[in-house]
Design goal:
The complex is a heterodimer of chains A (440) and B (311).
Chain A (H helix, E strand, L loop, with lengths): L1 H28 L2 E7 L6 H22 L7 E7 L4 H11 L15 H14 L3 E2 L17 E2 L5 H16 L9 E7 L2 H4 L2 H11 L2 E7 L7 H11 L3 E5 L3 H12 L7 E3 L6 H4 L10 E4 L8 H11 L14 H24 L6 H9 L2 E2 L1 H6 L9 E2 L12 E5 L4 E3 L8 H19 L7
Parallel strand pairs in A: 1-2, 3-4, 5-6, 5-7, 7-8, 8-9
Antiparallel strand pairs in A: 9-12, 10-11, 12-13
Chain B lengths: L1 H7 L1 H8 L1 H32 L6 H17 L4 H24 L7 H23 L14 E4 L2 E4 H23 L1 H11 L1 H6 L4 H27 L9 H11 L4 H22 L8 H15 L14
Antiparallel strand pairs in B: 1-2
Helix pairs in contact in B: 3-7, 3-8, 3-10, 3-11, 3-12, 4-5, 4-6, 4-10, 5-10, 7-8, 7-10, 11-12, 11-13, 12-13
Chain lengths: 440, 311
């Protein structure tokens, strides 16, 4: 008798489970799949975790508050790359066909992985969205139809930094004879701004020196003795990542280099970079393409619909940190590209090829940003067939010992310098790979 | 020709023209080298007692620092957090001896080495699971500002680190030379079988050695954690200790110190004066190259024991 009851209960559980699984599968069949490459493990995990949380929480917000995009639910799957190129490619191959229509778009969150994926993703017709990283020349949409670099790139940022330094010195004409040094992560990422800074050195007459720091950058005493005690530059720029940043800040303070003349790339301008450096970091500056802080309506919504509902992707204390906000910005671009594509292809899960059209026709106006609860959070962006970067302006922020504060308005990049470099480099790539550029 | 000049002429001209800067680089390198020695000491202790290269030493440094700063974040004062962390490192040593090492007694050294790789991954993951992956600020009151002495800039932090490392070495020397346990440990290091035959308990000695290595790891974690912040990358400082060990010998405490000083000073001088000739960022590989050059002349390292076997 007991055996029969157990069998009946088991059958009931299997039946209910089966119905639930079918319902879940049906729900997923009608959902748009968004892959999320993260690094919650490895040496760069302190930076990867808040970014991944921001990405997931914003998509969760759309599902919880709005029922997805135009009634189409979003499903997200994370794959941990640990910031390794080989694992990035593995994650791509594993996730590219998931969901009813395949992956919407990949955000590799690593310049190295971006380089590794460009040809594969183009062949598979899946967009690569490398927001503020990756190869800058991929901004030329005629040669790289599946790569999007908005809202700005390393080359644009380098020009904005020089523009800012020029302004601080009393005009770019005053840059002649000044010494500007670059401390960079000895990798494809760290080397990205070098051609731009060298070109600007020719244009403005400043003396440009560069100092490579080998991965991971735990020990930089020799580098900073050369900079702070021998070269004694007027300004130092930094293209660093992870522990390299906080070590550089401390070593710079150790040789008495003034923090307010030390500017990092936006990946060197996070809480993870300045907090470990303690008081030494006060006054340090960095580039930025979005705001820090949790005072925007979007944060209130995330708190209400995601965190308070117990659905936060990670620790709630990350809300409003620089990298969390960057993750939110990443999801805003991806989901708005999907929304744009739906206006053309209909409210249903879309293919990567269709979402590529959405990216290319994205027009994130000030009005739209306000509707999204992001008024003042970032600059409006309009993408086009040949320009996948958008407008590209940058702000400079400064650490006051407790928080990041914006100290400039949007600084437009020197388009007359950057765009020809992008087109020349993209044309060389097209020639090397035998690509016929699209006619935009 | 230009390259030859950058290697054989320019650096010496630069040193001649700016002797104070050379002294500054040299002192900075020596003080950094002491910090490398601090990490290398943990390796030496375990290798001396068991002949095992403890791959997990870097992970132990990270785990100790994470535990200390984690306890401080719970509001414990530094002294209390220190005592509890020491207790946890001793407990960890006992667990490693009981669970990992004891079942592997009499196995090949390579098996024990593989086991320490397993311990590394366990500690990296376990430490972050308990205390999180965030970068944590560790401030134990060591001053960080630089001072200038007769035109030579020295960071106070580096001086403090050197003093702490020096005191630790003296304590270890007393421990090895003057205490009963220390003498037993040296006996085990010399010959396991002979030591056991006169009644020295190998398992107890291993537990003690791993405990001491854990405490050395804690000191290294405090110093490096104060410098870099406590984060996953702290485990990678083990890489900076390897050339020190190659040069100084795996079995010598003085070797770890002298090796650290030579590697620290050598890599800094090379980076500053010869770096530009090679495109910069040479200090990491230069340290290994320097160690390998020493190996050509002394394969056992500067202070390592010369192995003579009859065949």
């Amino acid at each position: 008798m007991q055996h029969k009851l157990t069998s009946t209960a088991l059958a009931a559980v299997i039946a209910v489970g089966g119905v639930m699984a079918t319902a879940l599968a049906a729900a997923q069949d009608n959902a748009q799949f968004i892959p999320s490459m993260v690094y919650r493990t490895g040496p760069y995990a302190p930076n990867g975790i808040p970014f991944a949380d921001g990405v997931a929480d914003y998509i969760n917000l759309l599902n919880e508050r709005d029922g997805g995009i135009n009634g189409v639910k979003l499903t997200v799957e994370e794959c941990d790359t640990a910031y390794n190129n080989d694992r990035g490619v593995e994650c791509y191959e594993r996730m590219k066909n998931n969901g009813p229509t395949g992956a919407a778009a990949f955000s590799p969150l690593s310049t190295g992985i971006t380089y590794a994926l460009i040809e594969r993703a183009t062949a598979d017709k899946i967009p690569i969205f490398s927001m503020g990283y990756g190869r800058t020349d991929a901004s030329d949409g005629r040669v790289f139809p599946y790569v999007f670099t908005m809202p700005t790139t390393y080359w644009s940022q380098a020009t904005a930094m020089i523009e800012y330094i020029g302004k601080e010195e009393g005009g770019t004409d005053k840059l002649k004879g000044k010494k500007i040094a670059l401390v960079y992560h000895d990798s494809a990422y760290g080397k990205e701004p070098i051609p731009t800074l060298e070109k600007l050195a020719q244009k403005f007459g400043y003396q440009f020196s560069k100092f490579a720091v080998p991965h991971p950058g735990l020990e930089q005493k020799a580098t900073w003795l050369k900079i702070g005690r021998q070269l004694r530059p007027d300004w130092v720029l930094m293209w660093g990542w992870g522990v390299m940043n906080s070590t550089a800040i401390k070593e710079a303070a150790g040789v008495g280099f003034p923090m307010d003349r030390f500017i990092g790339v936006w990946w060197s301008g996070t809480e993870q970079d300045v907090i470990p450096a303690g008081a030494a970091a006060k006054g340090y500056k960095s580039g930025a393409f979005h705001a820090a802080g949790s005072g925007f309506p979007v944060h209130a919504d995330i708190k209400k619909h995601v965190h308070d509902a117990g659905k936060a992707a990670g620790d709630a204390k990350n809300l409003g940190t620089v990298l969390y906000n960057r993750g939110v910005a990443n999801s805003v671009f991806v989901t708005e590209a999907i929304r744009t594509a739906m206006a053309k292809y209909g409210n249903k899960p879309l293919t990567g090829e269709q979402i590529r059209w959405g990216f290319e026709n994205l027009d994130l106006t000030a009005v739209r940003l306000k509707e999204l609860g992001l008024d003042g959070f970032m600059n409006p962006v309009k993408v086009s067939c040949d320009d996948h970067e958008g407008s590209g302006p940058v702000k400079i922020q400064q650490w006051d010992g407790k928080q990041w504060n914006m100290i400039t308005d949007w600084i437009p990049p020197m388009r007359d310098v950057v765009r020809p470099m992008i087109e020349d480099s993209a044309a060389a790539y097209a020639k090397e790979k035998g690509i016929t550029p699209r006619d935009c | 020709m230009e390259f030859l000049q950058a290697v054989f002429v320019d650096p010496f001209v630069s040193i001649y023209e700016y002797p104070l800067f050379f002294i500054e680089v040299l002192i900075g390198g020596l003080l950094t080298g002491v910090m490398y020695s601090l990490v290398a000491l943990g390796f030496v202790l375990i290798f001396k007692a068991s002949g095992v290269f403890n791959f997990a030493q870097g992970a132990m440094v990270l785990f100790a620092a994470l535990t200390l700063v984690g306890l401080m974040e719970y509001g414990l004062p530094l002294w209390a957090a220190l005592i509890i962390t020491v207790g946890i490192m001793v407990l960890l040593a006992l667990v490693i001896e009981r669970v990992v090492l004891r079942p592997l007694v009499n196995q090949e050294h390579i098996i024990l080495f593989m086991a320490t790789i397993g311990i590394t991954f366990f500690l990296d993951g376990f430490g972050q699971m308990i205390w999180g992956s965030d970068v944590k600020l560790l401030d134990v009151g060591i001053p960080q500002d630089p001072i200038e002495i007769k035109g030579v800039l020295i960071n106070k932090f580096d001086i403090w680190a050197a003093v702490i490392a020096g005191m630790l070495v003296m304590l270890l020397a007393v421990f090895f030379q003057r205490t009963r346990v220390g003498r037993a440990l040296r006996a085990v290091a010399d010959d396991h079988q002979a030591a056991m035959s006169v009644g020295i308990p190998l398992k107890t000695i291993w537990a003690i050695v791993w405990s001491v290595a854990g405490i050395v790891g804690l000191v290294a974690g405090i110093i490096w954690g104060s410098k870099l912040g406590v984060q996953f990358s702290l485990a990678l400082i083990a890489l900076k200790a390897l050339p020190v060990l190659i040069l100084g010998g795996f079995t010598s405490v003085p070797g770890a110190i002298i090796g650290g000083l030579i590697i620290g000073a050598g890599e800094k001088v090379a980076e500053v004066f010869w770096g530009s000739a090679f495109g910069g960022a040479i200090e990491d590989w230069f340290a290994y190259m320097l160690a390998l050059v020493f190996l050509v002349f002394r394969p056992q390292g500067l202070f390592g024991e010369k192995i003579i076997e009859r065949v």
